[in-house]
User: Fold this.
Amino acid sequence: MQVLLIRSYQLLLKGLARVLPFPRQHRLIGAGSSQTLAAELSRRRWRRPLLVSDRQLMQLQLPAALIRDLEATGLPCSVFDQVLENPTIACVEAGLQCYRRNGCDSLIAVGGGSVMDCAKGIAARVGNPWLPLRWMEGLFRVLAPPPPLACLPTTAGSGSESTIAAVFTDPQRHGKFAIADLKLLPRIMVIDPMLMLGLPPAITAASGMDALTHAVESYIGRNGSAWSRRKALSALRRIHRWLLQAHRHGRDESARLQMALAAHEAGAAFTRTNVGYAHAIAHALGSLYGLPHGLANAIVLPEVLRWSHPCCEQQLAEMARAIELEGSDGSEQGLALAFIAWIEALKQDLGIPATVAELREEHIPQISRCALKEAHPGYPVPRLMTQTDCEALVSRLQDHSDNCFR
Assistant:
């Protein structure tokens, strides 16, 4: 009965995703495209934007040119730079106070997924000051429209600039939660590879694997459409071709642009299909141990695919063909296993560990409960897990060696 209820709910979401009126975004894409944003905002009559970023990016002066452009265009810009790696409710509330204190009317997010998610949370609270952020958890609970938001991603991973969702950490409940609503889709997105040229290799690796996880989980999920599958496969092909290049040659402008486009396509795919168990377990690990989301996804993904394989062999084989992999015997099973092996080899080339050094045996039941609570009923996974299944999978992520990942 529980399986029937879960699958029925997911079928309802699949039908809903096909008729929802996703808003159209204005897109600025290409090297130097961020330099045209100020003029676009002025044309749209945005008057006093709040720029949301983090302290590291502000210290690197990455938003400095945009701030100068805004001021030169007559748009005084306030700055909120207290975004954490895993944004919390308190972080959103601090941003809300900064927005109100400075009389802002719009938002600009310059940063990775955490920054863009935090900006979405601030916008949701501005538009709905009587609703706590936690109340808006789930689907379509952002009742009143938020102020307009522009997103300039500085990493190629989360794809948050193209999604209707945002994820937050609740330290009091020791977990993460998501809000999702069409009103949260940014009005403007800017993909400028020049903002990503200085990314360290470790961040390039983790964010790239985050985009890969989005593409894979949207493709193998039961709620995919022809459109989402095309987007996911396009993202996969770009990642296969360009991720290692961007990791090894960080100032390769073409590689940075292609990876940014991959993250955008994967984000567009999963915002219409949802994700899967890799994300749910990664969120639980991130909440408990502070692991960056992309890194956690990368560690978890192969184990989830191995467990899911019996129910998504055809989809895994199709992805293998899309990047021209060869199976051991040319069969669907051989291709599916080759695809999982490719992900593991890619992780190794990127220097991503296979296990979580911080993971403790006594935390495994808690992590599994949190992951399944997040995943059920909304994640249209190809194969449903029980608590026992999840605990067995998470236990395989333990590091039993003397070489700990720090």
